[in-house]
UniProtKB/TrEMBL annotation:
The keyword Disulfide bond is assigned to this record: no
UniProt-listed Pfam families: Ada_Zn_binding
Molecular function via GO: DNA binding; methyltransferase activity; zinc ion binding
Annotated SUPFAM superfamilies: Ada DNA repair protein, N-terminal domain (N-Ada 10) (SSF57884)
Gene3D superfamilies membership: DNA Methylphosphotriester Repair Domain
Residue span, Ada DNA repair metal-binding domain: 22-72
Stated name of the protein: Metal-binding protein
One GO BP: regulation of DNA-templated transcription
Entry annotated with the keyword Ubl conjugation: no
InterPro entries assigned to the protein according to its UniProt record, in alphabetical order: Ada-like_dom_sf (IPR035451), Ada_DNA_repair_Zn-bd (IPR004026)
Keywords assigned by UniProt, alphabetized: Activator
Length: 86
C-alpha cells in the first residue's frame, strides 16, 4: 500500500495512506491547492521541490503556521492579509 508523508499541525511529519489535499512551501510557509499555477511553474523550473510539504486539510496547514497562497487562494489570502494589518 502506498504511503504519503504529510505535515501535521505541530510541524511534525507523519505517514498517511491518504494523499494530502493541499501543498505548501516549507521555507516560505505558504500553502495552496495542489494544481496551483504558481507552484507548478516553480516546480517546472526545478525549484520548490526540496521545500514542498503536503497537508491533509487546510485547517492543518493554518494550524501549522502557513498562510494562503496569493494566487490559487486569493480570497483567503486577502482576508489573511487584512488580519495582519491589525
Amino acid at each position: 500500500m502506498k504511503s504519503y508523508t504529510l505535515l501535521g499541525s505541530d510541524n511534525s511529519y507523519y505517514e498517511s495512506e491518504t494523499p494530502g489535499l493541499f501543498g505548501g512551501h516549507r521555507k516560505n510557509k505558504i500553502y495552496g491547492e495542489l494544481d496551483c499555477p504558481s507552484a507548478l511553474n516553480a516546480i517546472a523550473k526545478g525549484g520548490y521541490i526540496k521545500n514542498r510539504v503536503f497537508f491533509a486539510t487546510e485547517d492543518i496547514a493554518v494550524a501549522a503556521g502557513y498562510r494562503p497562497c496569493g494566487n490559487c487562494l486569493h480570497e483567503k489570502y486577502v482576508k489573511w492579509k487584512e488580519t495582519k494589518k491589525n
